[in-house]
Write a structure and sequence with these properties.
By secondary structure, the protein is an alpha+beta fold. It is built from 14 helices and 20 strands. α1 packs parallel to α5 and α1 packs across α12.
């Protein structure tokens, strides 16, 4: 059923789209819809006093433009010793879709200069030990044979690594086997700045942004539209909630998405659970240290650790200032949002997802052990992890910051009871009237392809008409769906890349 096709059954105050949450996902979907359907009425509801304050905030995420250039969890080693690269290729292609859309917005004057939210930052992988060096070399061989990764470099020479990232080898034991790969096309992205800029574009073009407005109820009408009950939380006095009727609802509330989808009562959300994981980073703005390290360097995760806990030493550019950041150190909080409630995990339990939660827990004992170990670890032992990357690191130069909350998706599984997923997943009602996004990494980097997937699922009748316009915005999107000659003309029309944003 097409949700935004008719206004016959609804009142004059019905809007076309309600976006719940002021993060990168809502901002991206809003921008796509504003370009595709400029006449649609869109309202955004964010419970905090500014957008991009949870997972999209630059200090609540690593800022990596995830393109699988450095992340080992996207290239698992198979039993026969070969390295599987299919997921890495898919992630790289998805990030390319995001970059092309950002480039389209920049060339159209809808975003300010690219340096305000993205910068070239080489992506490196650094490993220690003979077995890891061997694996990294095989990974390099497999990836570099693919056109998307052909620029990647490999070395096991400490002198070369010193040229790429001096702090990795300075004062390191010369007998230790080390190796690294580097891709100079990597990026650092300030998703907070990008989110704010996207909302600035939206509000300048008629979208209503309601800050300090919390959605606490979603109810479907008989005509297929949704009543969105919203409370103004901007002051202490008790205010009566108001109801907004919408033909389509997107729940882009980060960790808060699952509870809202549960309140909506859609059957597609049944069986889903969420496991919250918090984290910490070490950060420095010491000019001498910052000047010696210009890369995002990812290592190998500890056994049992989730992908988001892969250790990495990163260059970060936030508000025009450069920092170094190391982590993450995993922690646990029952909150689904950094500024959420300690009851979030418990209030998300339902009869239909308890089995999933228990099944996933039993199958991930190693993850539980890892989290307990991280919680019990002393500050000294945590700092030792940084010294594994940077032997000369000294505690006086670094400060601890708390990262954002991530909620890992737990799904029903007929054989295992429940499985823990480490990616992102769109949940949409069968009639396309409501959808939400669950999960974490690679998250923001793949916001554009995730939202295009949502559009195709929720607006199937309109998507065919949108397809040519989307192709002008994103030339590489769905290449198998257009003729090669048409793709060539679209790519030519898109023009040259701009800074780190456009297509390679």
């Amino acid at each position: 059923m097409e949700r935004v096709a008719t206004k016959k059954t609804t009142g004059q105050n019905t809007i076309d789209v309600a976006l719940i949450g002021g993060g990168i996902m809502s901002a991206t979907l809003g921008a796509l819809l504003k370009l595709l359907e400029p006449s649609w009425t869109i309202k955004v509801f964010e419970r905090l006093d500014a957008v991009a304050q949870e997972s999209s905030n630059p200090w609540n995420n690593a800022g990596t433009g995830h393109a699988a250039l450095c992340e080992l969890n996207y290239t698992p080693e198979k039993a026969d010793g070969t390295v599987e690269i299919s997921k890495a290729v898919a992630i790289n292609e998805q990030f390319e879709v995001s970059r092309e859309f950002w480039h389209h917005l920049l060339t159209g004057g809808h975003l300010p200069e690219p340096a305000s939210f993205i910068s070239h930052t080489p992506h490196m992988t650094f490993v220690r030990g003979t077995a890891n060096v061997d694996y990294l070399k095989r990974r390099f061989t497999a990836l570099s044979a693919h056109p998307l990764f052909s620029e990647m470099e490999f070395t096991d020479d400490p002198a070369v690594i010193a040229q790429w990232a001096p702090l990795l080898v300075l004062d390191r034991d010369s007998d230790e086997a080390v190796a690294a790969t580097r891709a100079t096309s990597g990026t650092d992205v300030d998703f907070g700045a990008l989110t704010s800029q996207l909302f600035a574009y939206l509000t300048a073009n008629g979208v209503e942004l309601n800050l300090q407005h919390e959605v606490n109820k979603l109810k479907k009408r008989k005509d297929g539209t949704w009543d969105v009950t919203v409370k103004d939380v901007s002051w202490n006095a008790k205010a009566a909630p108001r109801t907004v009727n919408a033909r389509f609802v997107f729940v882009g509330a980060g960790g808060g998405a699952l509870p809202l989808l549960q309140k909506a009562g859609i059957k597609e959300a049944k069986g889903y659970g969420g496991f919250p994981i918090s984290g910490e980073f070490l950060r420095t703005d010491d000019p001498e240290l910052v000047a010696q390290h210009q890369a995002k360097v990812y290592g190998k995760a500890d056994v049992g650790s989730p992908p988001m806990s892969v250790p990495h030493l990163d260059t970060r550019v936030v508000d025009g200032k450069t920092y170094l950041m190391f982590g993450p150190y995993a922690g646990f909080s029952p909150k689904y949002l950094k500024k959420g409630s300690l009851l979030d995990l418990f209030t998300s339990l339902r009869t239909h997802n308890i089995g999933s939660m228990l099944g996933a827990g039993l199958k991930n004992i190693d993850l539980t052990q890892y989290l307990v170990g991280q919680l019990l670890a002393s500050p000294e032992s945590k700092f030792t992890a940084l010294q594994g990357f940077m032997p000369t690191a000294h505690p006086k130069d670094w400060e601890k910051i708390t990262a954002g909350q991530r909620v890992q998706v737990i799904k029903k599984d007929p054989k295992k009871g429940g499985v823990l997923e480490f990616g992102t997943e769109v949940i949409a009602a069968a009639d396309g009237s409501i959808a939400g996004l669950l999960g974490a990494s690679p998250g923001a980097s793949t916001a554009v392809p995730a939202m295009i997937d949502l559009l195709e699922r929720c607006f199937p009748q309109r998507f065919a008409a949108w397809r040519p316009e989307l192709a002008t915005m994103i030339p590489s999107l769905g290449q198998a769906q257009w003729e090669a000659t048409e793709l060539d003309s679209l790519s030519a029309a898109a023009g040259p890349s701009e800074e780190a944003v456009g297509a390679r």
